[in-house]
């Protein structure tokens, strides 16, 4: 019997990211449990492609990011990172490329014109914690844990710090970054890293409810709102009000706003056109 070629063996391997569209909700599932769904080159590319495609698909109203196995995401693939030290430049070019690609992925999630919900089961560590913080909403099981442990191995979690410090209080972010200690779901909720804690048996029901609720809204309104939220957050108060007042004016002139207000006054369900 002839042994299969390496390429043939690779082809039988399941893709790193599974995709399923359910009633306007795109379920993206990281499925490399044997590698703790780490952000390997393969996973980074798959996630980037998945989010880019979702941005262009009019049928997608909301994205749900989840995982298989015991970890949500273990951050960067340290085996790949270590192997790059054998390069002539000790890995400098490789590390710069990986960090840039990871940073672009996180910014893609923030810039995406559709809400992204992280569903966390198990551990979210380092860049995996960054991934959770970059999503618009996060739902976790009561056994989920979070940490930015780079300081423990001599590598401060500087890029995860960007997303973390924009989603939790400064002192809470520094606590996680300086100690590298694992926090439980309850503490993560207190810090503002996640929205809700759900028993595992009810996770699917709650996630579907969140997704269906968001998917039922006007896609144009969601796009306008998400873009404005992140833009105003970086502005001084007066500038933020001026910017958002203009956003409200333009939104009020949209057909979906006209339809939504009329439907409310007429006590009927609105019919969104996305315009």
UniProtKB/TrEMBL annotation:
Function: May play a role in fatty acid biosynthesis and insulin sensitivity.
Lineage: Bacteria, Pseudomonadati, Pseudomonadota, Alphaproteobacteria, Hyphomicrobiales
Name the UniProt record assigns to this protein: Enoyl-CoA hydratase domain-containing protein 3, mitochondrial
UniProt cross-references to PANTHER family, sorted A to Z: ENOYL-COA HYDRATASE DOMAIN-CONTAINING PROTEIN 3, MITOCHONDRIAL, PTHR43602
Signal sequence region: none
GO molecular-function terms, A-Z: hydro-lyase activity
Domain of life of the source: Bacteria
Family under the similarity heading: Belongs to the enoyl-CoA hydratase/isomerase family.
Species annotation: Stappia albiluteola
This protein's UniProt keywords: Fatty acid metabolism, Lipid metabolism, Lyase, Transit peptide
Keyword Calcium: no
Entry-linked InterPro entries: ClpP/crotonase-like_dom_sf, Enoyl-CoA_hydra/iso, Enoyl-CoA_hydra_C, Mitochondrial_ECH-domain
Swiss-Prot/TrEMBL GO biological process terms: fatty acid metabolic process
